[in-house]
Amino acid sequence: MVNYKGGQSMYYSSGNYEAFAKPEKPEGIEKKHAYIVGSGLAGLAAACFLIRDAQMPGENITVFESLPIAGGSCDGLHDPQKGYIMRGGREMDNHFECMWDLFRSIPSIVNPGETIFSEYYKLNKEDPNYSLCRVTEKQGQDAHTDRQYGLNKNAEKQILKLMLSTDEELADKKIDDVFDEDFYKTNFWIYWQTMFAFEKWHSALEMKLYMQRYIHHIDGLPDLSALRFTRYNQYESMILPMLKYIEDAGGKIAYNTQVTDIQCETSPTRKAARYIAYVQDGVEKYLELTDDDFVFITNGSQGDGSAYGDQTHAPEITIKNGQGPSIELWKKLAAQDDAFGHPDKFFKDIKETSWESWTVDTANKQILSAIEKICHRDPLSGKVVTGGIVTAKDSSWLMSWTINRQGQFVDQPDDHCLIWVYGLNCWDDDGDYVHKPMYKCTGEELCQEWLYHIGIPVDEIDELAKQCNTTPCMMPYVTSFFEPRAYGDRPLVVPVGSVNIAFVGQYAETPRDTVFTTEYSIRTAMEAVYTLCNVDRGVPEVWGSVFDVRELIKAGVKMNDGKMIKEWPLPAAQKAAIAAAFKLINNTEISKLLIRLGAAEKKDFAPIVEMPKVKVEVTSRVSELKDSKTAKIGAGVTVASLMAIAALLHRKKS
Ligand SMILES: Cc1cc2nc3c(=O)[nH]c(=O)nc-3n(C[C@H](O)[C@H](O)[C@H](O)COP(=O)(O)OP(=O)(O)OC[C@H]3O[C@@H](n4cnc5c(N)ncnc54)[C@H](O)[C@@H]3O)c2cc1C
């Protein structure tokens, strides 16, 4: 139970008892109003939760959006001049608990009678996502990483150390502070870095949270079978239905309206927003606020300052470090109270937080056939194509590309394929075909580099790139939330003492969840609405797989590329401990569990593996315990924990 202010609370739940509940209407909700800054997923989700769960009249809800379009960083746009633009394609998970909680109530637009959730569920059941070629090299050849992690002893030790470190220990630490080349040369890092867009200078704390949050996906990471996708781009599949839901209920979206300031009365025990200043279609306006006027603020946006190019123009970033509409508002708030966070931690260096993506639009048969050769699927079948990203591991730009189900846009011509490409290294190095750094390239040049890495013969690349239409986008702050941070740099969703202020989106602090996800924005929105409006229903907790011994054992086996515990390359002392443990758990539910999960086999338990060097010690220890039932039970429990930790990491913290 998280108590933020007198009498009001928000609590987490798991299981489906609370999931099926419709909360009581909060007392006095008709008299309250909500002003939401930002129409990204967080802002729109806040509006939806206000309508569905807080049961606030829709007419009382206003969303301010500085752009002429909703959706923020969750996009998909067909620009008649430039072409199709997808800044990103959102990889999603079955355990985005708050998102599915919401989307079961939002009707689909393209499939009457379905919700966003039911549409997505059926689609991903019928056409599950998985990759048939995750990594290439040498111009489109399969690099045969073959679902292996290839972790060496030192890399495993470093992963263990990170996993067991506390959040406090990892405050302000970089990934490079906890890993070295032994780790960076593994397949694990290739998969991890390119799937989540982590750089070595990013937050070690966030990396740990990711490992814990997605421990249940260790098995599905190498071939991306852990992922699920919407049918169309996320603007059409998610944002448009949310907008319709809000507007049908009477909610208003005020476009071209930039909130420039929110002034608050603050003390250590009480914080209240008192007025909002905004510029609407060029006109300055003010709105006075009472305690009954709730303000939900998207503080910071990874999409701020996005610069678009086209087939013949490179995108040009025009903002400087720290500039951007959402950042400037957050800075003004942060100047009023330390509890409102430290935006400078996230937006101080565009070079550290940017990358570029581009959308290639092609109907060229030779290109389609080169794609099919790599991903072993017909790109125009309308079904899963690459099954997530394909990474060209020898690309100097560290380029990855993906093709989701075509058409990705409702209006896309049947014979066209849209490819999303991105590169992490956009500033310094020339391409392998194009002799320029990525950020200086036009759409056509970016396309050339991609064609090179999918194996198009070098003498045909220039001509084929001309036949495609490619739209690039530089995002100066796309990974700004991955910058090293400490507790307090992000404001709590509802700061202590707040009566009407909540922070939503990727730069608000909520425990255990990970940023750069659609879920994070929706979760913070749900927590914000439930807290400020006193909605008496549990917010689903972050999926607890890291606390599930089964998931830990499975992860341990997977991280050892399928090897059973006895085959793990452990020092003699640890092998001895495991051998002793195996004796103690022989013929128990724990030994059965290990066998079931592929961590051991029947014959491991009787007799146990011989460990000559330590045999004497083990034997005497076992004989001490073997007659005592209590000791056996106690040992069983200990062993379960030991197995779990050993299975996951099989190195003790050094
Ligand atoms: C390239 C890319 C790839 C991604 N890949 C994935 C993925 O694979 N899986 C996944 O789960 N998620 C992914 N995401 C993340 C996910 O899409 C975003 O985290 C999420 O959409 C953010 O939503 P938000 O509402 O928190 O913020 P934003 O979408 O950034 O929205 C903020 C909105 O608020 C507006 N705004 C801000 N300040 C003001 C102001 N002062 N006045 C008025 N308006 C304001 C902005 O204009 C913007 O529209 C990806 C995002 C990108 C960009």
Task: Walk me through the structure.
The protein folds into 4 domains: 12-72 and 251-349 and 479-540, FAD/NAD(P)-binding domain (3-Layer(bba) Sandwich), CATH 3.50.50.60; 111-135 and 355-475, D-Amino Acid Oxidase, Chain A, domain 2 (2-Layer Sandwich); 148-220, no CATH class; 548-653, no CATH class. Helix content is 32%, strand content 15%. It has 20 helices and 22 strands. The protein is globular, with a radius of gyration of 26 Å. The site of flavin-adenine dinucleotide (FAD) has 36 residues, from helix 1, strand 11, helix 10 and helix 15. Flavin-adenine dinucleotide binds next to helix 1, strand 11, helix 10 and helix 15.
Notable traits:
disordered N terminus, 8-stranded mixed β-sheet, 15% strand, alpha/beta, 5-stranded parallel β-sheet
Largest beta-sheet characterization: 8 strands, mixed
Please identify the structural class as seen in this structure: alpha/beta
Second CATH tier, the architecture of the largest domain: 3-Layer(bba) Sandwich
Q: Please give the order of strands in the largest beta sheet.
A: 9-8-17-18-19-16-20-15
Which class of the largest domain in CATH terms? Alpha Beta
Query: What's the helical proportion of residues?
Result: 25-40%
Number of domains: 4
Regions with little confidence, pLDDT below 50 for 5+ residues: 1-7, 613-618, 624-639, 649-654
Would you identify the CATH H-level superfamily of the largest domain?
Answer: FAD/NAD(P)-binding domain
Q: Give the number of helices.
A: 20
Overall strand count = 22
Quote the beta fraction.
15-25%
Write down the overall geometry. Answer: globular
How far from one another are the termini?
A: 35 Å
